[in-house]
Design brief:
By secondary structure, the chain is mostly helical. The chain has one domain. Helices cover about 70% and strands about 0% of the residues. The chain has 20 helices and no strands. The C terminus is likely disordered.
Amino acid sequence: MLNCEAANPEAVQGMRDSAAASGLAVKLPGDLSLCLFLIFYFSVCDTALKFFPVSLAVPLRYLPETLLYLRALTSLWKGKRIWRLPLFRPLAVCVALMAVSTMRNGSAPTEMAENAYTTFRLIAFAVLAWRSEPTASQIVRFVQIFLRLTVIEILIGCCELFGGGAAKTFFAPNLDWSGSAQVLPLELHENDPSYLLGTLSNYNHFGTFMCMGMFLAMGLYGLSGNKRHRLLAWAAGIMVLFSLSRHALLTMVLGFLVFMMLHGKRRVVLSYAWKIALLLAVGAMAVASNRTMRDSLETRMQSMESAQVIDGDPRENVRLFMLVYLTPRFLVTDPVLGQGPLESPQGKSLDPSSGPQIKAAPQLPGWVTHYINDVVWLAFFGAYGLAGLVAYGAVLWVVGLASNRLRKARICPEYTVLGQMMLVFLAIFVVSGFFSQEIIARDTIPIFWCLAGMALSIAGREGLIGKKWNKETKAT
């Protein structure tokens, strides 16, 4: 069933050109409009709400998120559609294994419930996008509106770049995004004006956000040839460099490699190769022209290959240290089901001198283990073992499977590009999970789950996954 809005490809292209020329807006389903509103809200609310009293800011922060969950649950439960959600089975298996690990280790069920909530709550975006059954033009319109947020964040990044610490302190959020009502200090932004973070939680999130915006702009440029999208892709790529996020730079390069591999055409690959080199050269010259940013970037890069980390000194790069130090110990101690939820001392979840007790390395001080949740994959592996980690990977595998089949089916250009972008985003977030919390943070991951829900919806509708696909493959 090749259902891409019209049976005649020329008619489809004519409608696209006509709409682009006249500036007509495609109407989005209500659930997709809600998703877009929440993506905008989650990205800027922590900056806006800091000007409100904390007693009012906290409810305003979490009320829209609560409405998202209620809408997703009612959408799933109506007609018992929850069983048809492609992510339901791997999610259920993952949560069940988390529960088994919790009971086996005698940990508090509330800690496991909090872990499951923090890790998977934003899949609600995928549920709403999956139920919306978007058309090709609606997908394009959705991405176009999201890119407006990318432009806003780029402009704010420029204000921080030229305004220094004072501008960054003005735009930086100070409500703790992880769930506490505690106000975070802003002095550190004033003291270190080298990196950029827009209105997002930190410079790592900003770099990853710019990375996603860059690839989506590239995708739209490939569809329409609109030079504004190409310019936006360049601007977002340069902002990745200015964020000074080491792993965002790494994931940008990785994303380019995946993108070029999926294209497959030698001419296109060579075209993007020199553009990547030019982008990196321009960004490097821009960073080099700013002494503060240059010195900060050199320090960060040196810490990635620090001999002190290899020798066991966590002070040089605490997250890299934990990857190197804890991974082999987790493999030796409870490798299958892990130690259960990693519980921080009561009332000290934000205290940088206090962290969870690690059974595999009880000698590690709290100021080191405090940062273990930043290394998402390592923390999940330590808590729920290889079984839990594989089950978590199965959730992402379903998304990757649907996206790859959608890309290969070549039903229409919009669906093909959607499949390509999802595979690029999967690579970005899988890698970022080794360094920071973008894969669970509400100011970065929602766009991923929205596009994942769209890909799952289209793949199911076109018989690329699910029972219909299984019947067709058996018949052949």
